[in-house]
Description:
The protein is an alpha+beta fold. The chain has one domain: Gcn5-related N-acetyltransferase (GNAT) (Aminopeptidase), CATH 3.40.630.30. It is 34% helix and 26% strand. It contains 7 helices and 8 strands. It has an 8-stranded mixed beta sheet with strand order 1-2-3-4-5-6-8-7, sandwiched between helices. A hairpin with a 2-residue loop joins strand 4 (131-141) and strand 5. Helix 1 crosses helix 3 (41-53) and helix 4 (74-83) crosses helix 5 (100-112). The longest helix is centred in the N-terminal third of the chain and has 15 residues, at 12-26.
Amino acid sequence: MSSYTPPMAYSPGLLYQQTLLINMAYAGTSSFPSTSQMKNKKTLQNLLASLSDKGYYMEFETDRLIVRNPIESDAYDIFRNYAQDTEVTQYLTWEPHTHISQTLQWIDFCIQNAETTTSRKYVIFHKEDKQAIGMIDFTLDSFMAEFGYVLAKKYWGNGFMAEAIKPVLESIYNMPNIYRIWAVHDINNPASGKVMQKLGLSYEGILKRFCLHPNVSKEPRDAVLYARCK
């Protein structure tokens, strides 16, 4: 777990979501915070910091975004904003969702695996629009970390993806046991490579028949590899 101390933001919508997350994290324990405690901004800040220390919760704030662990209500934004979009999902490893139940199931899985020894999953929350617009997924394996990402089409071309990933990447890169962070993109999706370059990753080559993108082909596809090493 990184020593990073997450900054807190307190828009009404986000405050409600943070309270929901506290509800989930404390469910079944005897230390559940009272309603008056959760209405107090400073107390809530301390509670969230405590959850972060215990590995329950992580949050990063940028100028335009909140990058945080997922909660169940994110599923509705995700389903509406991009999970159904065939263009957004073209180069992803999963097929477009056709029903909200699929997205709810996915978010439930993400919640269970949001902060583990091998997984970090984050929702990208747009401050001004007050909705989830994408996700970031890091997989930790021994001394390496791999990441992937998705962003709603409405927000493409405005630097949101690199802005969202950067603080998470730096937090994981600074972990003492991580020496290499890497990512790949489909050979026909160079726009994704530009994000990797903005994050300081270097081109390493082409991986032949490396990834499965079922919305493009049933056969394995070539991928472009980028990495950053200590």
